[in-house]
Amino acid sequence: MKKKYTVTDRLITIITGWIAGIIVIALAVWGIYTIWGYYTYEQTNDAQVEEYINPVISRAGGFIVAVKFEENQLVKKGDTLLIIDNREYILQQQQTEASIKKSEAQLQVLESMSHTLEKTASASKAQITASQAKVWKQQLDYDRYQQLYNEESATKQQLENMKATLDVNTSDFQTAQDNYNVATSRIEDIKAEKVVVMAEIARLKALLDRHKLDVSYTVITASYNGRMGRRTVEVGQMIDAGETLAFIVNDETDKWVVANYKETQVGHMRIGDSVKVIADAYPGLQFKGTIISLSPATGSSFSLLPPDNSTGNYVKIVQRVPVRIRIDGNRKDIAMLKAGMNVNVYTPKDQHHE
What is the model's pLDDT at position 311? Predict the structure, then answer.
């Protein structure tokens, strides 16, 4: 019995044939495009966007009294981010300032004492000259009376009076010399004390500068233009110096991609080669990049536990070489690319190198 096909069956057959044909053509086009891509480009999907993400670190400890930012907020260089209670630091600064004033007053006292002793030494020096003249005159008188006494023209009492007067004048002369020596010695002592006080003032001024720095550290500002990341602090929280308080993404530096190419792919790559970058988040957009460096070693060589191929259980594994690629374009054009995003990187094979 001859089987009959209805019009509907023939229509279904035709449509099915066209669909199958379209699918076969699409698969063929996709296959040719994919093969052509592998032939034309060295490509990898083991790549991520990178940019500088720096921690905001406190250089002073204390209680937080104000938080001036929110997560993901845009900030400008110099914007205040956090304020720490600075009363203790200000008290330390004031104490050091008072110590400086005390030392400066002590220095003035030493200056006054030095001037007084200089006048005393000058008076003692004049007294030495006068006493020396008296001793010289009395010595001449004594010598004359000694000669007269020897000639029996003077009495012994007169000679003894002259000798006593000579001894008194000699003693006055010696006392004047001692007073002068004491005054000059004390002047030298005061000079040494002034050096010590001046050194102490210099130390206190350096300490004051440090306290001023500590006060300035209680106001934490943005070091550059950027966007704030995760925030981990709140008002009233006690923090220590060196503690990480937040993260800021630097908007003043380039963004780049670290593409981990197979070692079999990097043989012809050179610094300066052009690269095509497509982010998974924006498959319809292409970004241009430039190779700026190739890692001096494979990624596994920098791992915490590098593989040791001499243990006897060696299995050959194709290694990956990190390639750093700068994303070209102004900040507005590439702002949509965020650190950590996955991207596909395509490096043309037909770039010529000298």
Answer: 65
